[in-house]
Amino acid sequence: MDVSPVVARILDGMIDMHCHSGPGPFPREFDHVDGARDGDRIRMRAFVAKSHHHNTVMDLQAAHRSFDGVGTRVYGGIVLNNQVGGINPYAVEMCLRMGGKVVWFPTFSSRRHIAFQEEALAGGFPRSTVELTTVPVLLHDEQGRLRPEVGQVVDVVAETGTVLNGGHLHPDDMAELFALGAERGVERMVASHPNFISDLTLDQGVELSRRGVFMEHEVGMYLPDDHPHFGIEVLLEWIEAVGTERTVLASDLGQIGRTRPVDAFIEVTTALLDHGVAEKDLRRMLVDNPTHLMGLD
Q1: What residues have CB less than 8 Å from 175, skipping those under 6 apart?
Q2: Can you tell me the distance from the alpha carbon of 92 to that of 19, in angstroms, rounded to the nearest whole number?
Q3: Which top-rank group of organisms is this from (predicted)?
């Protein structure tokens, strides 16, 4: 896809905090190295490789020689689904102390996502290439109290200065998690695609942003030919309500048959420019805010 000089200038140095490069049980369009090479097209500074099923730091360390000569840096993280033991502070500790940047609370193992699953699969979400057991990963015990391992994970995130992401939690659970994070000194908190799966209302998103949580919107959701699809006016409404100072644009792409992240960033950035979003505001959401969240400034 061609990129105009102004869009190229906006995207120069951007960071994608949510990229589904492979390998993993879900089929992927490209692996971590291919994704980084493609990122060089727009001088992408970095992306975070996200797998719903394993700690991606180990992938990257194993493939480190393959990144020679590639300008785009790739960082890892961990999602607290069944396959890593759920809310597992020991797995988090290893990931973050070996260079991981993001901890996502349960996605596919959250009660919210499991309730959404059949609709998601019917809508074209990927299916695993191997049979995987799905049971909910719970944040609370039988008395409704947060499990102690939730606090242990939050403490490791605070200690390492990394990102606490709400995953696909219910809005109430997400608010409780972020309140605990703030109480325990976490300075970088993110809610991914807040208006999808977790289905935060705009008011809930604004309230979380006032508490320091960044709303991460996925450009893959604002492409006319992709699924899920929301109109660009939905994204504009969220940006207006939350403000660019608490908004991040990421891709959530890498699935087989979907648009590549670089092309999606070009297309959605162009659309936002056409709808009057200022160049400096786009740089804030694509470059400055993720640079801060990743601790690269």
Answers
A1: 204, 207, 208
A2: 19
A3: Bacteria
